[in-house]
Amino acid sequence: MEGVSFMPAEIEKKIYQWNLEYTEGKLSLTEFLSKVPQQLQRFFMFGIPTYNNLGDQMIGFAQRLFFRRNFPQLLYVEITEPQTDAAIAELKQQLRASDMFGFIGGGNIGSFYLNHERARRKVFATFVDNLTISFPQSVNFDETTRQGQKELGLSQDAYGKNPNLTLCARETQTFRRFQKYFDNDVLFTGDMVLSLDPLPGQGDREGVLMIMRHDDEKVTGDDLLAQLTKELADSGYTVHQTDTVVPFKAEDGQEENSAKEPLRLNERWQLFSHKLDEIRASKVVITDRLHGMIFSVITQTPVLVFDNSYGKASTSYDNWFADLNYVKQTDDTSPENVLQSVKELESIKRVDPLAFDHSYDALKNLINSHLV
């Protein structure tokens, strides 16, 4: 990158440590910013999760790495979602024209995860004179209910206040909905976890790993899962169950009112690596989680995908993974046919290579156009 000035490693390490201390409440945002070189252009990423969903956690980790790789000259500041109000108040007092803002990607724009949507509205409606980016998201407003329509209207009001806001859609269903709902610019970009390098396993693989939802997006019932497990076990497969949530950390929305500790930023990679080890040790994964599919893709593990309640898994499959020989999406829940699909996936000897880098070109160009 011509003209890029790279930050000395010692300074970068100190900045990361100060950012950790800020997210843990040991420094105010103002104190943190006073410590860093003042000539650095700043990018503030809001919405960083402190709850136990590893998919959302790894989006945050991948975004940080994305900036480190592509924009090393920027001061990249992670702001956790519980810090939203205080951070907005502090930044309003020291805002620069060159500052840029983002809100983390994921699957929570809409009327179903209002703790996230309310925080997002505040950020979008505040920094209206600065570049603001909603990183790759899926959207789900329930237009069949008055409450869903009301929440959509509130988001339209908030997003509409910011003429410098760009929304990134991580699948075409969301891209079309963004265009329908909002007047802001829209980009089509892959989920940020796909920006990570492939992390394939080298050891022996064994059995089938089921990564299944236990929340409101679940469409595969417990009885069906029991039937599938029995069919696989009767055919000689060892079947393991897991999920992409960390059970000993605070749940979404309970970070400040839970006996369980929030998940700290410096814990993300270790917990993610442990989950990837589970996946890499398996011959085949069965999942209804988008990030169950994505984690399987980046570990090059054959995976059979069921949909979630509003289509983000199947649409993401169609957009990004349908050409990969080791990823298969199905609506067929017949235990016999699922078993056949597992056998077909297990038989794959060489997996197709990954090629997602260019899906971020428009996002990179947008940020590049605002560098000073």
UniProtKB/TrEMBL annotation:
Source organism (scientific name): Ligilactobacillus pobuzihii
UniProt cross-references to Pfam families, sorted A to Z: PS_pyruv_trans (PF04230)
Taxonomic lineage from the root: Bacteria, Bacillati, Bacillota, Bacilli, Lactobacillales
Residue ranges of domain Polysaccharide pyruvyl transferase in the record: 53-310
Name of the protein this chain belongs to: Polysaccharide biosynthesis protein
Superkingdom of the source species: Bacteria
InterPro entries noted in UniProt: Polysacch_pyruvyl_Trfase (IPR007345)
